[in-house]
Batch of 4 targets.
Target 1
Amino acid sequence: MRAALANAAGTGTVVIGEGEKDSAPMLYNGERVGNGLGQAFDIAVDPLECTDNCADGLPGALATIAVGEAGSLWSPGPGLSMDKLVVAPAASEAIDLRESPESNLESVAGALGRPISDLRVVVLDKPRHGELIERMRSAGASVSTPSAGDVAASLEVLLPGGENDLLMGIGGTPEGVMTATAVQALGGGMQARLAPQSDSERATLAAVGFEVDRVLALEDLVSGDSFFVACGVSGGRLLRRPWRSDGATLTESIVVSKGSVRRIVETSFEDGQ
């Protein structure tokens, strides 16, 4: 991905990447890419979403990136984690991260015209979410708990025919900003706030002036034109894994831009065609 971005027209700035979060040496916050010829643009990137799934041969791993106008993507600075609420367009005005999870369930159910017992909520299966998952189930909602993959789960909320109605809980900041570009393009609703997972992370954020309790609206996360792209790596409901046919390798990607969702199958041959 870094090699491909190096040849992109213009000058791209990695506003948020996995470099700091995963102690990776590239695609880190502030890194510049592109050939310098053309307009400037922002990048949010997770080159391999669901890394453990890929390593374990499980479905769900994706290569993901979002690109926006220069200055349009929110930068979390040293923030690595954020609390998120994501809903479909019909419930975009029904969420408030300052309210209780149960209150948000009630509001979303009302906006969708369905009982809470008919809602499917996605919460990552992490120790920090034990109480949240129990509260959602006690309220009557059906809760799906994947071990990772909140970007794909959010797309299942946003896309027609998706299995999810609501995503809640804490995940990575790169995933959050990328999700925001898809939410904006598809008219969904999203709120987020930083959720430091250690005293040192909280202190670092405070030292550089971040308000960790500030609720970020969708327009705070992405303020200009943008698009989101994901390519299937290990397969799953959303996208196929790469496959071979007639001497070629094929990949399936999804491109989400303003009011548009496109699926693209790309073919590459061993001789470079």
Target 2
Amino acid sequence: MSVPFHQSGVSTMIDAFPHDPEKLTSNHLTCLIRRVRPDLEVVGFSVYESKVFGGNEVSTACRIGVDVELVGEGAAKVASRWMIKTVRPDFGDIPLYRNEVEFYTRLRPELDIETPACFGGDHYAGTGTFGIAMEDLRQRGVHFANVNSKVSLDHVRSLLSLLAELHAAYWASPRFVADLAWLHPHTSGDIYTLFNHPDMVPAMIAREIAENQFKRELVESVGQSAERLYREFRKLQRHQSTLPQTLCHGDTHIGNSYLFEDGRAGLLDWQLMAKGYCMHDVTYLLATALGVADRRRHEGALLEFYREQLQGAGVEDAPDSETLWLEYRRAIVWGVYIGWLTTPVENYGWDITVNNHIRLLTAYRDLDCSAALADLPEAKDYKDEAAT
């Protein structure tokens, strides 16, 4: 797709960000970059690509590729090809959008990890819209992974190293009660409500299981039901909140990674960023990145690799190997319940959706997740919890 350059008429005051490239203006793009670079202005742009929901490539956000013309001091040092992430119009104002804007505009600048460069972003609460301007990673020749990709052990180690660096940077950080007090944990805030309120995501999951035979039979194959998985998921999150807290990516299934030919890898899609426990990220990655046989063969060694990387990054009180293994077994329920039982087939297509379910529910059974969670106290009923 190609749209001619649009010219500037900048007022830098907008109240919504469009998902339709035909409605995009230089003013919209200037508002994004001025969140992080107030000295720059977009005076023209052309659209070279647009991806909307329905093509098995978009889950919770649409994408618009633009080539921009920038002016201002230092403009020549900013990439001119941007990938704009914006709202999926049928979703409304979901907290995931605001959360990702906060990551890219407030935390991304202080992190030296392999994740997309950001040129600006903003969230418009009154309209539920947002825009994030990022580099188009294809310019660096990456492969966007999914559960059907050939993911090498080097790629997995690279992602574990990235997670160890991220987790170490915020491990039990005093900043969580200072300048990072705005960062929500897994046990409170808007995303917590979305995932825990019985009328929200849990109701959606119950429908997904009831209406999709493959989901229903896979859940039944591990002796579970939607209600029992919901209780286990809540028990897990309450337990993890008592463990050392750090910054988590939050949604580390392999489809949120990109791979380089030399074995390096990076993470994208930070919509579920949260304060949480490290194994939330590590478990979800290992359970989706590797086929069943490879995961069984290598998971122990990969967990030990992560632990060594965490220690090497400066975490002196890193969990011991036995603790990591137990928390790994427990954490798989999040990937099963929230990670993929929520996901309609039309988001990613049949193969990717089914294969993620197979990997996660097989790991749930292999690791005897229910037994690992059995000795933890039940979480308070959501309605009782909300009342207090």
Target 3
Amino acid sequence: MTINWFKYASPAAFYPIAGRLVPVFSIAALGLVLFSLYWGFFETPERLGGSNPQKEYYRIIFVHVPSAWMSMWLYLVLAAWSGIGLVFNTRLSFMMANAIAPTGAIFTFIALWTGAFWGRPSWGTYWDWDPRLTSELILFFMYIGFMALHSAIDDSRRADRAAALLAIVGLVMLPVIYWSINCPDPNNCAALHQRSSLTQIESNILTAMLTMTLGFWLYSFATAFARLQGIILTRELESAWVRDMVSGPTPAASGG
């Protein structure tokens, strides 16, 4: 049996699917986040070793690192949907990009906020113009700029295309953020952040971080699909299927 996936590119066809997926992803996300918090606080070492041992405050990485990963991943997804919309002129693609942007901005803000609380005991300051911090801040501004540009243009089609172009231009920030912490030559890179290496992380810590990341990922699905439903209803307000859904079934005429 062949499934015609292209029919789901229609907002009317995807709307009910999004509604069914939101509670599934929400419940799964809640369970994973609670599990990772428990594992991170009770099943991981009390302090990290090394030349500069870090005490209990290191546990902020269970939120900070997954948030930073999600901030970059969601921007990549946002730009991908924007590119699909520009190439194929599909309305649902632009709607998906708009639905993802607020969640991506939230995760970027959380990464910056938790990074500041990490920096105070680690580096002695809440903020430093470290390459990773600066590039992550610029990514946050890219999310804000995407949403602001789209809101500033009244015509939704023009707004979709203008914001999509900005999102694609902003892709340049992702390799900048990655190489700001994974610099090929650490001796020539002025960065407070340590190099990122999953192979060097203690197994229980890695379990908590990856589980939290998966929980955040599912949360992103839930919030994006819930927001997408609102965007679809707003954009398709004059469509017959929306009017029929809002008005409900027409009562049968009573006999005289």
Target 4
Amino acid sequence: MTIINTRKIAMDIVTAVLEGGAFSNKELNSAFQKYDIKDVDKALITEIVYGTIKYKYSIDKILSAYINYKFDKLDKQLLNLLRISLYQIKYLDRVPAFAVVNEAVNIAKKYISPSTAALTNGVLRTYLREPNRYNKDNEGKKEQLAYEFSFEPWFVELMIKQYGEASTKEILLFLNSTPSVSCRVNSIKSSTEEIMKKLSDIGYEVEEGIACPEAFYIIKGGSIEHNPMFIDGLFTVQDESAMLVAPSMDLEQNMSVLDLCCAPGGKTTHMAELMHNEGIIRAFDISKEKLDKVRDNCKRLGIENVELKPLNAEKHSNSLVDSADRVLIDVPCSGFGIIKKKPEIKWNKTVNIASELISIQRNIMHNASTYVKEGGKLIYSTCTLNKQENEENVRWFLKTHSNYEIEPLQLGTAKNFCYSEEGCLTVLPNSYMDGFFIAKFVKVW
């Protein structure tokens, strides 16, 4: 019988993410399908993986005080073994430090090379004896915040420049928080009250949403994907910030709607539900694989008014010109609002990411503007907090497309809702919601 080494699995996943550009959630799902792992071990692996990735900057600052040469000279598996071990010692109270060190030495000896065991033992035991070799107080204010919240200094600087220091601290704090389980009731099949009651009756702890009537949160309970109500399409998983998009579109039942960047389909299916399966939603994405997942979601939820086709939204389509009452463009973005769900975004984005994305975003905005009927509406959304991709793109669009006007949004007065002078909405991350941005334009001629 194969013995499952949970920390070896965690090390491999962290290595795949940090060194190979893999996605943490996909690597975890793949490992859980490959190995027969107990739920308690799955929880530990998940905690180690997400925690190590989340706090990589701070962990590396500490490790640099105990390693005499640069990280790029270390074996990548060894480096990530040290990272996951230090994470457990520093951040996980329930894991005895001596056990972490012993397990790390054994993994180094067995899976990396016998010669690395001594270095592993030396670094970790020296940290236990002298935990304060690295002193953030010797750094500047920006670097101190970077260490405290484990973000790259350039990101801290960007947030301070755009939001101010006080708001930045809250943003960084909530981007590091544990993601909530946010769900959306399928209004075609049920109601929020009914689903929440049924879940409560079978032992789930649930709470109402903050701003969206279809939203609720699962605080405690079993696996969602195996829940019969989820399987039957009575509800789906979606962050409440993203749930604000469909209601902002002023949808009517017999409208023609385009969703140009539809995967994974949460907003598409929400629109269909609000339209009561009437009208037509033509949903596009560049990836056929992603479209297949959207199709599966539509089938599970009982959605019948969605047509799915591959399309590169950056390329203009003459067949779509003046064809839609509503057009949604949830454009590719830096993703800075969803870091607590995808912590690797901290490390796979660079200071130049906005300039690389803005031309793509603006191409999509321009193309989409030609697909809207006169009097129709164009909705622009991102899951980033970067104002270069949000408010600055809105101002560019209004300046270059005189046939459009902005329509101010009013989607509630939650503490984390920030409305710009133009009436765009930025949702700041909190313990429940991701960071998000929405703007609405009307085609006046």
